[in-house]
Sequence to fold (161 residues):
Amino acid sequence: MSNKIARELIQGLGILIVDHNLHMRRLTRMMLTTLGAKSVYEAADGLAALEIVRTNNPDIMVLERNVPVLNGAELLQIVRSPDLFPKPDLPVIMVMQTAQRDDVIEALRLGVHELLLTPTSPKALQDRLLSVMLNPRKMVRIGKYYVPQPRRVRSPKRVTH
Fold:
């Protein structure tokens, strides 16, 4: 996909950055605006993020895992409540410092669409945004969790001689 097309796709999005670190929020905002984003909202904690989701209706949330007041897990449990929250299908890209197996499993269980490791780059951020936009996944209930429909794992092709 050309950068021009990617830029046009990102340009129309409302993107919420949720991160307790002002420097990281500004850095992420700068990357997003460089990628073409025009509507960028910021929240320093999970409670402020909920209010922005309710009032500004963003298209995507870029959520740092360890935000205060309501942490990333608590925030997602509220957002992913179809009977209680007005936008339970909101695509979420979770920002993490490490990709420990347990943390990744927890993020997927909580309903995260994509993961992004820090430090990140504009290209990695763009790839996650485009993945969420171009390959949308329907939300489904799996047990007590409301999550994006799991991706199908492709089995390796067999080589025959």
Notes: The longest helix spans residues 22-35. Helices lie at 3-11, 22-35, 46-56, 72-79, 101-110, 122-134. The first strand starts at residue 14 and ends at 18.
